[in-house]
Structures are given as structure tokens and as C-alpha cells.
Design brief:
Blueprint: H1 9-17, H2 19-32, H3 34-38, E1 43-44, H4 45-52, H5 56-68, E2 72-76, E3 79-82, H6 84-87, H7 98-104, H8 107-113, H9 116-122, H10 126-131, H11 135-141, H12 143-167, E4 175-179, H13 185-193, E5 198-203, H14 211-217, E6 224-228, E7 241-245, H15 253-266, E8 272-277, E9 279-280, H16 290-302, E10 308-309, H17 310-319, E11 322-330, E12 335-342
Parallel strand pairs: 4-5, 4-7, 5-6, 7-8, 9-10
Antiparallel strand pairs: 1-3, 2-3, 8-12, 11-12
Amino acid sequence: MEERTKTPPWQSLVRLVFGSMATQVVGLAARLKLPDAIGDGERGAGDLAAEYGMRESTMLRLLRALVALEVLTEASPGRFGVAQVGELLRADRPGSMYALARLITEPVMLTAWQNLEFSLRAGSPAFEETFKADFFGYLADHPELSQLYNAAMSQGTLSVAETVAKGYDFSRFETVVDVGGGDGTLISAVLRAYPGLRGVVYDSAAGASAAKQTLDRAAVAERCVVETGDFFAGVPGGADLYLLKSIVHGWDDHRAGTILRHCGQSVAPHGRILMIEHVLPDAVPPGANPLTYLNDLNLLVNGHGLERTRADFERLCAGGGLTLTGIEPLPPTGFCWIEARPG
């Protein structure tokens, strides 16, 4: 068998240090909606340059960089189409990740990352040091960015919702409260998979603003209500399952423990708390996906969260008055379900 050629270390290093440039190129393509402008066929560099008010020569350089990054294709010199990766950047497509790409490459997000060293030394968000406001407070003052954030969270959830619905047995329960459930994307998938289940979407007024429309589109609105509030103050009572996807990792142990404590106090005696989160191994294994570890740093730079190991979740549950009862992976998403019971 022919031995697979390994990438020379210098090439790996160059790819890493040029990574921020790739982010800028892809972020600009998303902001310009270039894949939407190209559409299903092909377009020439001159045609696109005229549409965007750019020089043909510089547009050609941008388009060819996007080809090299596997976002676009160049079937013939100067004629460009959209590659599979680029299709995910199309805002007009089902399954689009346009909002997520826009959010991650927003100048606001990238500016805070320039102060990564501050976060590492101070143990606090560079975002707050840079903008003199916490992340969610900043969103509240910038409605367009807030809408982009909500759309990005929905797109991120949509990619794993069906896997969560199939990967955990929800048939044991009667009512599930999706804590921090946003626009209802996750609970819609769960309710579609379990017709006997009823649900509650619980989030802030801004976070849940689009939930009714999502539930209507999924034809589950008759079995699900939308309630708004602050999960640091409490959660709706009376359910036998509390579902939290990517909520716990957004907060430090004290605040995450407060959320879990409210869920434990509200859940039925026989009920469960179900978290959908990444679970870090005790040491980084060979071939590990770097995205989880980069997101761990992102949670530090832009907020007060962190990714956790199994032992971390056990301590966190104990601090919230819960007992961890199981953790199982949800391939191929990279997430796990983490189940706990009160007491």
C-alpha cells in the first residue's frame, strides 16, 4: 500500500498563520453575498466587478482566492461558479450557514480576538475590555447584529436538531421545556419526531421573537407554547424534561449552576435535565477537531463561558443540586447528550 504523503510542518504552519486572511476573504464574500450573485450558473469576473463597483483585475484576484479556498470553482479562465462549500454561504438556500459565517467573521467579533492575550491574563472577556459592554448588552444596543446572532444560532442548531431528536429517547416524557430555545428550531425537530410530546420554548423576548413562526412552519404550534423570561431568575415549572442546547457552555460555573439549579427545582421528581454540549477529553487526542478548542477560547474572548470535561460536568451538576446520570456522543455532530436528575 502506498504510504500517504504527510504535509511538511512548514506548510502546516504557513496555512495556520495565513488563516486570518482566509477568514477575511470568506467573510467579505458572505457580506457581499457573492455566491448568491453567481447563482446556479457561471459568471465572469468583469460582470461581477461591474455589479459591485470594483476593478475587474482586483475582483478576479478575490474570486481566484475563493476558488483556492474551495468556495468557488473556475471551470474556464475568468468564469466562476459556486462550489459545495460556497452553497452553504447562499442566503437563499435551505440549510444555509450564511448567518453563522457572517457572525463569526463580523469585524466586531474579530476585533475582540485581537486582545486574546488580555483574556488569557485577566481571565475575563476581551470583548468587554474592548467595547466597554458585555456581549449580550452590546447586542441589545445593536438590533441588526442581534438579529444576525439569533439567525446564526438557529442555523447552528438546525444542523444538529434531527440528530438530537433521533439520538436521545424522548418517548419517556410528557412535556419538554427548551431552556434558551431561541426560535424553536430544536424543539420543533423533537416534537415532529415524538407526536405525543408537548413543549415549551423559553427564552428572552428578543431570543424567542421568531419562535412562533418556526413552530407554525413545523406544524407543531398546537403542542408548544412560547414563554419569555430570564433563566437566571427561574424557568417554567411542571415539565418532566428540561432541554438546554449550548446554554451551559456559555456561562461560568456559578451562572451555569444557577440555571441548572432552577431546572432541578422545577422539574418533576421523576424528570431529567438534558444538556447538549461538547465534552472535552481529559487530554487532547491525536487528530482532534481544533474547532472545539478554538470555540473554548472564543467563549473566553467574547463572554464568560467554557467547554468542559466529564469531570467538570459532574462537579457542575453537583453544584446545581443534580446528579449526572449519563453522557453519550451524538455522531457526527461532535456534541454529546448529558443527562442529569434532581438530587
